[in-house]
């Protein structure tokens, strides 16, 4: 194993702050990388800093509510914590809102939408569900209060996993390009404008320090940039284990491992395994950074799977650090 | 805990092996490692994956995998100093769009409608975006492979799409069929002639209030294109249904084995149990539970010796602090391993552990799996050190 120094992981704080200031942020990543937890942390952090934040759950209904320890999100934004609104998005719910908006009257909605044939037809239109959900997100991003100021300063979308996220985000462009002239096409064009606007929208790409998740992140990054034409915000590496053995420790560990004292096998095996994990982790981090090019933020491995507000604070701490807010904190790679 | 042989026996008696589980637990690599073991045991085996090709291709040492079968050559094994399998290992990746095209090309009864269908603008999105489309095409592929007469296979290992809900995979095809074909469509699209041209009820001169209102949402042109698309599928529904039924028969056959892949952590185990419940409800037994990425217990064979470690660290020039961190690292590894064993035992107790239903912890490998050597390490880790060489080939499977 080469004794390369650990990567310098600190991102440029200005770049991180810029990404976190975009009013429309989408959290992307493959299944199981921790999108819901990160989305909740992003939302909580911004709300604590006085922003009016709407967190839209497309991915795992009620997951954010569970993490934030608040009542499950309704279909309409509800302020669940100070400055933090939560809203669950389902294809049916979004479709209903869209229909009511277009048809104006509830009575007409009932006649049309309670119709068995129509329910069926709507289900068959490809990506219509995703499209109306995106429409709802867009609507809230543009929503104004009576004084003309935006209702929300920040809209965060906890997007579905890889493939579905792309269907979801490219829904606007797909509809704009494939559907014949009509009300849907017009709306789709305005949604696509928001998604493609680098000053307003960005995606955060999440991954884990493992081979396959980083490879998938590479594909997802290319698709989000080229197919969805969205701009990259943060590259987020989740569950980055703190180093137990520093580079300086390694010669000592190796010396003892080389002695092969049978009674010390449990110790040398664990230490050698840990060092291999460090090396692999650094390699994945390096590859992930090459892929995403943007500012890389590493999140710590959380002590429990059952994430609550306390664990969110650990992630918020990592974000603060990446923004240069608390530089006095020791970095993940600090050697003891 | 059952001896390792029970896993191998379960593998030997299977003609179709379906790996199910949530995402992120190593299902794809596990599928490949299981297929590799079957090939080592002398069988002609294919692993069919749903995930993007690169994952499995890399692990199998193939430049790429597509909708066509790729055999892993003996040279690929030899190059890494590995013994090539006595059987044959091959891989295939499900490309949903290509598979749809193939099914339409193969089964559509009317050449003209077939051509128009393939050219329909909505066909592309429909075939790739319709919920359950992927699972449905996996079934079509499974049907293809299971019924092929040329170069028949002894075993098909199917890597299913990640699912958090209980076996979406089993339900998706019927849902997708229901979306394409139901009484409502047939009524709507039933063609009839009005004023000399063939039309459908959907665009009947009187165009109902309902349809007009709906048109305000989507634009009427969209509805027309959709109706056209659905009508172009006419003539294929019966075939869809028949093959879906045939696959159901294959899946509930005793020679089909479902393996639940999970990790020894609370939420993946919960998911594994929900798979188990759902499969049991369908009368399908689970062949094995594999709990991947388990922490190896440092004290499994050797007792703790903290004082010796401390002394040795200081003797070779290390600090007290290093010794302390080292002891902590080993202790937390031991605790994690203990906890995972408890979880395995709880799962085993819940599902009624038996020879035929092993619940196995698969230790985390020290390296990522990105080539055949890594896959071989995983295989050995799953199946233990069963000596497959020199043994007489196991009978491929029962006559069905």
Describe the structure.
Chain A is α/β, with parallel strands linked by helices. Helix content of chain A is 51%, strand content 13%. An 8-stranded mixed β-sheet of chain A has the order 3-4-2-5-1-6-7-8, sandwiched between helices. In chain A, α2 packs across α13 and α4 packs across α7. Chain A is elongated, with a radius of gyration of 23 Å. Chain B has 400 residues and is an alpha/beta fold. Chain B has 2 domains: 260 residues, P-loop containing nucleotide triphosphate hydrolases (Rossmann fold, 3-Layer(aba) Sandwich); 51 residues, no CATH class. Helix content of chain B is 53%, strand content 13%. In chain B, the strands form 2 sheets. In chain B, strands 3-4-2-5-1-8-9-10 form an 8-stranded mixed β-sheet, sandwiched between helices. Chain B has a two-stranded antiparallel sheet with strand order 6-7. The C terminus of chain B is likely disordered. The interface between A and B is large, with 71 and 72 residues.
């Amino acid at each position: 194993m080469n004794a390369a120094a650990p990567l310098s992981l600190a991102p440029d704080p200005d770049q991180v702050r810029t990404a976190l200031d975009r009013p429309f942020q989408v959290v992307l990543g493959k299944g199981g990388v921790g999108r819901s937890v990160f989305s909740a942390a992003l939302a909580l952090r911004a709300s604590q800093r006085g922003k009016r934040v709407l967190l839209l759950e497309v991915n795992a209904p009620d997951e954010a509510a569970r993490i934030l320890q608040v009542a499950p999100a309704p279909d309409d934004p509800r302020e669940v914590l100070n400055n933090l609104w939560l809203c669950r998005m389902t294809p049916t719910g979004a479709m209903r809102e869209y229909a009511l908006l277009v048809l104006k009257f509830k009575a007409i909605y009932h006649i049309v939408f309670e119709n068995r044939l129509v329910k069926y037809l709507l289900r068959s239109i490809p990506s219509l569900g995703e499209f109306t959900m995106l429409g709802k997100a867009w609507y809230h991003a543009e929503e104004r209060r009576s004084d003309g100021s935006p209702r929300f300063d920040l809209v965060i979308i906890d997007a579905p996993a890889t493939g579905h996220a792309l269907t979801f985000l490219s829904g606007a462009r797909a509809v704009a390009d494939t559907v014949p002239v009509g009300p849907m096409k017009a709306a789709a064009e305005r949604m696509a404008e928001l998604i493609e606007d680098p000053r307003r929208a960005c995606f955060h790409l999440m991954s884990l320090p493992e081979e396959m998740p980083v490879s998938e992140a590479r594909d997802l990054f290319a698709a989000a940039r080229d197919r969805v034409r969205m701009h990259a915000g943060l590259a987020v590496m989740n569950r980055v284990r703190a180093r137990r053995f520093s580079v300086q420790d390694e010669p000592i560990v190796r010396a003892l491992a080389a002695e092969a004292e049978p009674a010390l096998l449990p110790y040398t095996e664990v230490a050698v395994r840990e060092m291999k994990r460090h090396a692999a982790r650094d390699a994945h981090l390096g590859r992930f950074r090459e892929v995403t090019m943007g500012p890389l933020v590493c999140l710590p491995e959380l002590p429990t799977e059952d994430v609550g507000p306390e664990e969110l604070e650990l992630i918020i701490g990592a974000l603060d650090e990446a923004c240069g807010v608390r530089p006095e904190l020791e970095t993940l790679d600090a050697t003891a | 805990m059952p001896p390792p042989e029970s896993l191998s026996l379960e593998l030997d008696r299977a003609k179709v092996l379906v790996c199910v589980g949530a995402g992120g637990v190593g299902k794809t690599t596990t599928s490949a490692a299981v297929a590799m073991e079957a090939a080592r045991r002398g069988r002609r085996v294919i692993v069919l994956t749903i995930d993007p090709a690169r994952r499995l291709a890399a692990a199998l040492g193939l430049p790429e995998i597509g909708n066509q079968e790729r055999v892993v050559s003996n040279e690929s094994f030899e190059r890494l100093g590995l013994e090539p399998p006595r059987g044959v290992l091959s891989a295939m990746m499900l490309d949903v769009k290509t598979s749809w095209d193939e099914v339409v090309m193969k089964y559509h009864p009317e050449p003209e409608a077939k051509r128009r269908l393939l050219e329909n603008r909505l066909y592309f999105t429909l075939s790739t975006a319709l919920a359950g489309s992927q699972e449905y095409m996996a079934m079509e592929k499974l049907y293809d492979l299971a019924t092929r007469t040329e170069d028949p296979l002894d075993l098909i290992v199917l890597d299913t799409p990640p699912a958090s809900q209980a076996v979406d995979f089993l339900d998706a095809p019927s849902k997708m069929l229901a979306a394409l074909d139901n009484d409502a469509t047939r009524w709507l699209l039933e063609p009839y002639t009005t004023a000399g041209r063939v039309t459908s009820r959907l665009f009947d001169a009187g165009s109902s209030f309902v349809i007009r209102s709906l048109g305000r949402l989507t634009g009427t042109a969209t509805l027309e294109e959709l109706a056209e698309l659905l009508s172009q599928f006419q003539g294929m529904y019966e075939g869809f249904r028949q093959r879906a039924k045939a696959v159901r028969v294959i899946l509930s056959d005793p020679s089909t084995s479902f393996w639940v892949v999970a990790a020894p952590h609370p939420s993946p185990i919960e998911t594994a149990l929900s798979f188990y419940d759902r499969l049991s409800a369908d009368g399908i037994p689970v062949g094995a539970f594999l709990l991947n990425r388990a922490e190896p217990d440092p004290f499994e064979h050797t007792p703790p010796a903290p004082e010796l470690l401390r002394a040795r660290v200081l003797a070779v020039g290390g600090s007290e602090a290093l010794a302390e961190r080292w002891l902590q690292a080993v202790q937390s590894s031991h605790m994690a391993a203990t906890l995972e064993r408890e979880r395995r035992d709880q799962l085993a107790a819940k599902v009624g552990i038996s020879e035929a239903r092993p619940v196995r912890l698969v230790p985390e490998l020290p390296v990522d799996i990105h080539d055949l050597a890594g896959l071989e390490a995983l295989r050995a880790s799953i199946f233990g050190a069963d000596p497959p060489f020199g043994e007489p080939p196991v009978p491929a499977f029962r006559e069905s």
